[in-house]
Amino acid sequence: MRTVRGFSGYACGVIVTALKGMYISKSQFSNSTDQNMENRRKLCCGEYFNEETHVSLTVVHGMDRTRYHCLQCDKSYTQRTKHNSHVKLVHENTLDTKNVQILRRNKEQKNKQAQIMMTVPNRNIDNLTLTLQKCINTELTNVYGCSILPDGRLVFSNYYPYMISVLKSDGSKDFEMDKIGDTFDVVYIGDDSIAITTRVSKNINIINIKKRKVEKTIQVNSNSDGVVYKDGHLIYCAKEKGLKMISLNDESTSNVTNNKLSDYAYVTTSGDKLFYTDPDNNSVTCCDYHGEILWTFCNENVLRRPFGISVDNDENAFVVGYLSNTVVVISPDGQRFRLLLSSEDGLLFPQVLHYDQSTNTLLVANQSEDAWLYEVKDARYSYF
C-alpha cells in the first residue's frame, strides 16, 4: 500500500509510507562527516528538503530506504537508511506521475488561496451594505441590551420590568427570565453564560442560559451601565468612576480611565482599543487600555444621544443615536462617518445594537418592541 499525503494505492507489494517535511538526520548516517551530512541534506535542485517542494517516502522492500521526489524538477531519489559508511543518492523515476501532478495542483491551489486572503483589504465604510435578514418583535418595552449568541439565538435585556428574553434564530420566543434583580446591559461570556449589569443593585449577575438560573453575583462598588467581555474580563461603564475592568476569575478590579462617564454610556472593544459613548455630549470616544484618548467623534447632525456601540473586524464602530433615530458607522481613525439607518428604516428611539464578528450580522433594537437583523457586506467583495 502506498500513501502520499492522503493519496493511496497499491504498488507490487512494496509498502510506502508518506513522511512530512524533514531533514535527513545525522543519526541515520553515524559514520558520515558533518560536511557529507550537509551535502546529503541537499537534493537535485540544490535546495534543502522541505514539505513544500519535496515528497518523502519510506520504502520497505528488503532493505530500508527513503525515497524523495522533487516537485520542482520532477526527479526522484532513493536514499538507503542503513548505517552504512558509503551512501549515495540514486536517481529514480518510479514515483507515480499522477500523484505528483495532484500534489503540485494542490500546492498551486493553496498558494492562490493564500494570495486571495492576503490581498483582501480592510472594509471601507463607504462600501458597506446592509441587507435586512429579519424583522423581530421583542414584545419588550425598555430594551437596554442585546446580544447575538453563538448558536444564532438573540438575547435582550429589559430595564423595567426587569427581565431577559431569549429568542430563537427565527425570532420566535425561546424563554424569559425575571426575578433576577434589576437588568441593564447584557453580554455573552462563553460557557452558555451571559453577564447582566445593573444600575441599582451595584452588582453584575452571571446567568447560565442553559440551566436558566443565576450562577454568580459579583459585587461592584458602583452602578454599571454598558458592558463588554474580553479575555476573561468584563469592562463596564461605572458613571462617575469611569471605565472599570473586573476579572471573572478572582473578581479583582482595576481602573481603565477615571474620566467621568454619562448615564447610559455603553462600551465595546477591539484589539488594544476601547470605544465608548457619551450621550450627554453627543460623542463617541476611542481610547487605549491606559485611558489615553485617541480620538473623539461628535456630529449632532447625524448622532444625538448615542447609546449602544459595537465594532466589526476592521474596527469600524457602529453606533445608535437615540434622539436622532439613526445608526452611524465611524471609521477606525474617527475621521469619517456614514449614515446607515434612519427613521425611514423604522428606527424610533433605537437603544442598542450588537455586531457579531463571526457572522458579520448586525442586530439593532428600538427601545420598544421592534428589532432588526442585518447582514453586513463589503459591496466590492460580496462574493466572499
TrEMBL record:
The keyword Metal-binding applies. One of its GO terms (molecular function) is zinc ion binding. InterPro entries: 6-blade_b-propeller_TolB-like, Znf_C2H2_type. It comes from the Eukaryota. Residues 68-96 form the C2H2-type domain. Keywords: Metal-binding, Zinc, Zinc-finger. This is C2H2-type domain-containing protein. It comes from Mytilus coruscus.
